[in-house]
Q: What sequence folds into this?
C-alpha cells in the first residue's frame, strides 16, 4: 500500500519541509518526437501495437481536438500552453514487455521504493494490489493472479486493449466521449497508459486496488486513461496517488477516468493528488486538468468520489456522476488545498436522471498564502427524476489575508418533487484556536494541522484508513509555513 | 517556583498590568481575587504567551527560566498549564486526539517516549475515573457543544493528563455545580505536592473552601494591592474589595 509506507516516509520528512517527492530518476527513456500531429498519434498507437479500431478512435479524437478551443471559463490563470513543445510519449527503455516484476528495470523498482511503494513488498506483504504508471507506461501490476481467481481484471489499459478488447471497445469513451471537452479530446488522441478494472457480477473485490502515477521525464505530458467497470451487484474500492519531480517548467497532466456501475454495484474511487505544486514564487508545477466521470447505469448503483488535492500548480477537475439508474447514489467528498501560488477550480456535477436518485456533495476548500480556491458545482435534475435529492455543503477555510475562496454552485432543477439543499460557510483559523493549541504544547504547524484536519474530518473519514493517515500528514505538510 | 517582578503589560497600547510582583514557591497554591476587569485573565495570558499581550517591563521566571522569552508551546513543555476562563472550541477535532497530540508534544519536548493510542486510552480512562467524569468526553470534539461546566471539567481533565508543574486556573470554578466544584477541587488537591504549584483565579470563597490556598492576593487596577493568608478571602467575601483594599 502506498499509504502505509509513504506515511512513515512523510512523517520522517515533516521536519525538513518542502516537497520530498521531487527527485528525478535517471533511466534510459524512449521518446516520441516532440510535438503533436497525426503522426504522433500513429506513433503512440504503433508503439503499443494497437488494433486498427483504436487507432481510428484516436485519430477521430485528434480531429475533434484540432477543431476545439482551449476553454477559459475556469477561475484559473496560466500562460498559454504550447502543445507543440512537449513530448507525448515517454517510456523507460525495455526490450520486451515485463511479464513479472523480476523483469522490471531495478532502477524503476527503486524509484517506487523511494516513493514509499515497494512494488515487491507490496505483492508479498501489504495485501493491496498496485498498478504503477511511470510517465507514459504502466510498469507493474501486482496481485494479478490472486485477483484473477475471483474473475477480477486489474491491469494496465494497454494490456486490456490486447487481452480484453471487447470490454475496452464497449466501454472506452462511453462515459466521457472523445469530444466531451478540450482536454478529454486531447487525452483520447494521445493517452498512453492507465489502469483497467473489471469486477464481474456479484463479486466483492477482495482487496483495495491502487494505482500510483508518477511523472518523471522532462517536458512530458502525462495522459493516462482509467476505466473501471463494476457489473451488477459487485463492489470495488480504488485508490490513486500521484507525485512528480520538482522542475522549473510546468507540465501538463490531462487524465480521463471513466466509471461504470451496473445494478446494485458500488464503486468507491479515492484520490490523493500530490503532484509537484511549484515553488513559493509559482515557478514550475503540474497543470492538473482532469476529466473524471462515473455513470450509475444500474438501479441502486452507487459511485462515490473522494479526493484530497494538495498538489499541482493548477487543479481543474470535476469528478461527476450521471445518475441514470433509479435509486442510484452519487457522492463527492473533496478537500482541496491551495498554498503559495497554487490555484484550484474543482467541484462536481451531479446529474439526476433516474427516479429517487440521491447525491451528496461535501467540499472543503483551504486557501493559504496567495492560493486561490474555487468550488464549482452543478446539480442538474431532469424532469423525470421524481423524488431526487441533493445535499451540498461547501466550506472554505482561509489562512492569512492574501488568499481567496470562491463558491460557484449552479442548480438546474426541472423536477417539482426534487429537493435540493445547499449550505456554505467561510471561516478563518481563529487566533484563539491557535493559542489554545499552543498553550497545550502544540507548535504552530501542529496546531494548524490539527485545526485543518478537524475542518476536513467529514471528507477524510471517507478515505480508506491508511490513506486517511497519509492525507492528514500531507495536509499539514502542504500548509507548512502558512501561518505566522 | 514562579517569580514575577514588577511586570507591566498592555493590550492595543492600553496598559492593563501596572507592575505586578508575586512569588509562588514550589509546592504552594496561591489564589488571586479581584473585581471584573482588574487584569486577572490578562496576567494568565501574559504568563502563557498569548499574542497581542505585550510585556512592557518587568520579568517572570519559572524555576529560574525566563518564560516571557519563550513560545507558548515551550512554556507548556516546561510545565506551565493554563485552564482557560473561556475554553475554545475546535470543530472536527476529537478530544482524545487533541489531548494525545498535546501530551505527545510535551513528552517529545522533554525527551520522553510518545504514547500510542492504546496507552493513551488506558491513561485517560484512569484520569477520567479519578475525576468522576464520563468517557463520552473523549469521543466528542474539543469543547464543541459542551455545557459551560463540561468545558471547565475538560480543562481539569487536560491538566490531570498533562501533569504540569505550574497550573493557572482562570475561574475554573465559575459555572460549576456543587458536585462538579468538589470534583474539580479534588482534582487540583490530588496534584498538590512539592513539584506542583498553582495560581487559582476565582471570585468565590466556595472554591477556596475546598482548595485551601497558602496565600491570597488581591488584584485591582492592574496591581496586587493586598496579600494575606486564607483569611483574606473570607474578609473579601464579607466586606467587599473596596473596604479590604483600602
Ligand atoms: N483584547 C482586548 N482589547 C482591549 N482591552 C482588553 C482586551 N482584553 C482585555 N481588555 C481589557 O483589559 C482589562 C482586564 O481584562 P481581564 O480580562 O484581564 O480582566 P479580569 O480580571 O480577568 O476580569 P473578569 O473577572 O471579568 O474575568 C479589562 O478592562 C478589559 O476590558
Ligand atoms: Mg478573567
A:
Amino acid at each position: 500500500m502506498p499509504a502505509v509506507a509513504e506515511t512513515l516516509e512523510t512523517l520522517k520528512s515533516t521536519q525538513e519541509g518542502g516537497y520530498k517527492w521531487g527527485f528525478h530518476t535517471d533511466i534510459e527513456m524512449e521518446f516520441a518526437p516532440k510535438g503533436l500531429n497525426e503522426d504522433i498519434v500513429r506513433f503512440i498507437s504503433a508503439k503499443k501495437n494497437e488494433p486498427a479500431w483504436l487507432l481510428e478512435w484516436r485519430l477521430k479524437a485528434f480531429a475533434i481536438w484540432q477543431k476545439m478551443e482551449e476553454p477559459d471559463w475556469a477561475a484559473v490563470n496560466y500562460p498559454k500552453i504550447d502543445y507543440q513543445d512537449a513530448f507525448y510519449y515517454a517510456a523507460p527503455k525495455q526490450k520486451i514487455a515485463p511479464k513479472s516484476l523480476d523483469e522490471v528495470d531495478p532502477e524503476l523498482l527503486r524509484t517506487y521504493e523511494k516513493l514509499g511503494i515497494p512494488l515487491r513488498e507490496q505483492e508479498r506483504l501489504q495485501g493491496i494490489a498496485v498498478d504503477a504508471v511511470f510517465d507514459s507506461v504502466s510498469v507493474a501490476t501486482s496481485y494479478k493472479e490472486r485477483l484473477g481467481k475471483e474473475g477480477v481484471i486489474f491491469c494496465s489499459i494497454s494490456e486490456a486493449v490486447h487481452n480484453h478488447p471487447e470490454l475496452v471497445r464497449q466501454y472506452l469513451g462511453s462515459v466521457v466521449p472523445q469530444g466531451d471537452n478540450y482536454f478529454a479530446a486531447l487525452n483520447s488522441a494521445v493517452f498512453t497508459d492507465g489502469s483497467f478494472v473489471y469486477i464481474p457480477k456479484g463479486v466483492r473485490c477482495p482487496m483495495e486496488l491502487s494505482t500510483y502515477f508518477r511523472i518523471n521525464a522532462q517536458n512530458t505530458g502525462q495522459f493516462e486513461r482509467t476505466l473501471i467497470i463494476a457489473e451488477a451487484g459487485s463492489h470495488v474500492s480504488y485508490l490513486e496517488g500521484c507525485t512528480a519531480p520538482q522542475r522549473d517548467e510546468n507540465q501538463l497532466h490531462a487524465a480521463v477516468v471513466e466509471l461504470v456501475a451496473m445494478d446494485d454495484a458500488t464503486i468507491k474511487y479515492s484520490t490523493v493528488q500530490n503532484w509537484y505544486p511549484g515553488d513559493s514564487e509559482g515557478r514550475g508545477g503540474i497543470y492538473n486538468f482532469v476529466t473524471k466521470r462515473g455513470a450509475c447505469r444500474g438501479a441502486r448503483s452507487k459511485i462515490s468520489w473522494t479526493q484530497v488535492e494538495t498538489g499541482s500548480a493548477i487543479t481543474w477537475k470535476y469528478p461527476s456522476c450521471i445518475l441514470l439508474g433509479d435509486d442510484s447514489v452519487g457522492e463527492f467528498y473533496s478537500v482541496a488545498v491551495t498554498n503559495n501560488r497554487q490555484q484550484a477550480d474543482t467541484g462536481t456535477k451531479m446529474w439526476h436522471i433516474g427516479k429517487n436518485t440521491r447525491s451528496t456533495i461535501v467540499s472543503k476548500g483551504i486557501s493559504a498564502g496567495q492560493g486561490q480556491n474555487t468550488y464549482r458545482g452543478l446539480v442538474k435534475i431532469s424532469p423525470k427524476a421524481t423524488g431526487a435529492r441533493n445535499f451540498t455543503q461547501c466550506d472554505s477555510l482561509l489562512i492569512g489575508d492574501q488568499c481567496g475562496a470562491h463558491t460557484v454552485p449552479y442548480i438546474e432543477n426541472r423536477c417539482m418533487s426534487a429537493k435540493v439543499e445547499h449550505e456554505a460557510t467561510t471561516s478563518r483559523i481563529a487566533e484563539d484556536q491557535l493559542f489554545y493549541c499552543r498553550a497545550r504544547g502544540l507548535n504552530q504547524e501542529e496546531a494548524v494541522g490539527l485545526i485543518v484536519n478537524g475542518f476536513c474530518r467529514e471528507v477524510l473519514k471517507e478515505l480508506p484508513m491508511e490513506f486517511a493517515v497519509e492525507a492528514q500528514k500531507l495536509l499539514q505538510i502542504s500548509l507548512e509555513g502558512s501561518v505566522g | 517556583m514562579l517569580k514575577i517582578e514588577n511586570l507591566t503589560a498592555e493590550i492595543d497600547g492600553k496598559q492593563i498590568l501596572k507592575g505586578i510582583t508575586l512569588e509562588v514557591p514550589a509546592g504552594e497554591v496561591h489564589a488571586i481575587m479581584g473585581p471584573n476587569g482588574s487584569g486577572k485573565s490578562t496576567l494568565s495570558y501574559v504568563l502563557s504567551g498569548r499574542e497581542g499581550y505585550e510585556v512592557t517591563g518587568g520579568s517572570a521566571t519559572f524555576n529560574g527560566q525566563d518564560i516571557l522569552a519563550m513560545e507558548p508551546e515551550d512554556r507548556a513543555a516546561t510545565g506551565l498549564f493554563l485552564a482557560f476562563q473561556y475554553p475554545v472550541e475546535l470543530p472536527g477535532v476529537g478530544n482524545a486526539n487533541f489531548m494525545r497530540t498535546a501530551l505527545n508534544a510535551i513528552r517529545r519536548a522533554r525527551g520522553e517516549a510518545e504514547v500510542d493510542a492504546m496507552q493513551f486510552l488506558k491513561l485517560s480512562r484512569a484520569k477520567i475515573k479519578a475525576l468522576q467524569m464520563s468517557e463520552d468526553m473523549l469521543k466528542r470534539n474539543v469543547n464543541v457543544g459542551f455545557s459551560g461546566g463540561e468545558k471547565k471539567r475538560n480543562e481539569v481533565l487536560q491538566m490531570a493528563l498533562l501533569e504540569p508543574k505550574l497550573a493557572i486556573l482562570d475561574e475554573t470554578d465559575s459555572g460549576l455545580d456543587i458536585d462538579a466544584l468538589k470534583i474539580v477541587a479534588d482534582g487540583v488537591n490530588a496534584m498538590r505536592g512539592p513539584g506542583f504549584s498553582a495560581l487559582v483565579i476565582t471570585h468565590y470563597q466556595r472554591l477556596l473552601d475546598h482548595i485551601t490556598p497558602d496565600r491570597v492576593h488581591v488584584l485591582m487596577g492592574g496591581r496586587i494591592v493586598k496579600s494575606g493568608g486564607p483569611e483574606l478571602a473570607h474578609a473579601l467575601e464579607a466586606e467587599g474589595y473596596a473596604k479590604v483594599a483600602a
Remarks:
- The pocket of adenosine-5'-triphosphate (ligand 1) is lined by residues B 11-12, 14, 16, 34, 36-42, 85 (CB under 6 Å).
- Chain A is about 25% helix and 35% strand.
